[in-house]
Backbone:
């Protein structure tokens, strides 16, 4: 019978980058965190701000032990497993187990379209709305449309601590968030966060003018993209 360590050596994920920074979005905004960015995604959003982990994935496959060793060499006690889409790798189960067994807090950032049985401390679920589909690739538009909405997967994740993060471009997309929420059995409004689409401070400030009062009106939570205010739209931050 294989040991846990032997199992982990055989389990790999494609890794784009691992770096320490500060969580800039959501309920844990401001928390020092190590970001483990997997490479590859089953969706292709037109606004993807990490094309090096979706449209043109970079990086090599690494074993769970190799990844955990790098994480333990950095200071933060919070780990954010992000992408791309980390859930495309079955080995995410072993990686989550190893990170939590090391006493670290684990957040998984996901679009909520693929499930593997695992426990994490915060599911950060960012369901993609219809308007996120790419327009310049018919093949990817079709795949995106077919894959982006998996209420069953999202509700499975919501059995554990979660936040739902929606990126919205305009008020019609914000209205689609309300329609989406109606499909869920239950949700906590304090854990439903709306973020403006935008990659510059100017764009985000402009969007905030309508989105902040809209969130107040619907008793949902406005979520600033603080990392853009702190660092700009720069890789590795
Ligand atoms: S789901 Fe996330 S990583 Fe994948 S294409 Fe969309 S924004 Fe990019």
Residues:
């Amino acid at each position: 019978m294989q040991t846990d360590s032997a199992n982990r050596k055989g389990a790999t994920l494609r890794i784009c980058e691992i770096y320490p920074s500060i969580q800039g979005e959501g309920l844990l905004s401001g928390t020092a965190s190590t970001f483990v960015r997997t490479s590859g995604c089953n969706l292709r959003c037109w606004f993807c701000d990490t094309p090096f982990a979706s449209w043109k994935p970079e990086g090599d496959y690494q074993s769970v032990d190799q990844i955990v060793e790098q994480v333990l060499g950095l200071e933060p006690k919070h780990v954010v497993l992000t992408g791309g889409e980390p859930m495309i790798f079955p080995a995410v189960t072993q990686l989550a187990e190893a990170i939590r067994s090391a006493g670290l807090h684990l957040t998984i950032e996901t679009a909520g379209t693929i499930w593997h049985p695992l426990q994490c401390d915060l599911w950060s679920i960012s369901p993609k709305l219809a308007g996120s589909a790419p327009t310049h690739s018919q093949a990817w538009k079709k795949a995106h449309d077919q894959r982006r909405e998996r209420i069953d997967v999202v509700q499975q994740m919501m059995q554990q601590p979660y936040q739902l993060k929606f990126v919205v471009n305009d008020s019609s997309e914000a209205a689609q968030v309300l329609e989406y929420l109606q499909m869920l059995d239950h949700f906590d409004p304090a854990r439903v966060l709306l973020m403006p689409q935008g990659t510059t401070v100017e764009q985000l400030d402009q969007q905030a003018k309508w989105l902040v009062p809209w969130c107040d009106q619907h008793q949902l939570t406005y979520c600033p993209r603080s990392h853009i205010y702190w660092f700009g739209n720069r890789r590795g931050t």
Q: What stands out?
A: Residues 64 and 81 are 12 Å apart (CA to CA). The chain has one domain: 4-228.
